[in-house]
Amino acid sequence: MAKALHQKGSVFVVLKMISIGIEAFVTGVLVAGLVFFALIWLYYDRRDRLYYDYQRLRHVHHCVKCGKLYTTRNPEGMVPCPDCGFKNTALRF
User: Disulfide engineering: 63 pairs with which of 23, 41, 81, 85, CB 3.0-4.6 Å?
Assistant: First the structure.
């Protein structure tokens, strides 16, 4: 490795020149690109999975009083019917 000394004010700065072959450079660029695309893929995969799980996860309720079927995102407790207001539990399959 070649060393060069440059004077910056009264402080000497040591610069080292790195010499690598073209094969190592191309390999590094390709690996960096693959890592970049893998990270982007993981980010969007996780984001889409959370979004579509939120859209998909609904709970079906059947009103005992009026017979209406309706869905909610509330998994717990009694949920009132949108038509008659009677509170019903979620159906279990």
Answer: 81
pTM above 0.90, yes or no: no
DSSP 30: H
Are 15 and 1 in contact by the 8 Å Cβ rule? The answer is: no
With b meaning 16 or more CB within 10 Å and e meaning fewer, what string describes 2-16?
eeeeeeeeeeeeeee
Judged by DSSP in three states, 82 sits in: coil
To 10 degrees, the CA torsion angle through 44, 49, 55, 57? -170
- Give per-residue pLDDT as tens, 40-81: 999 999 999 888 877 777 888 889 989 888 888 876 778 888
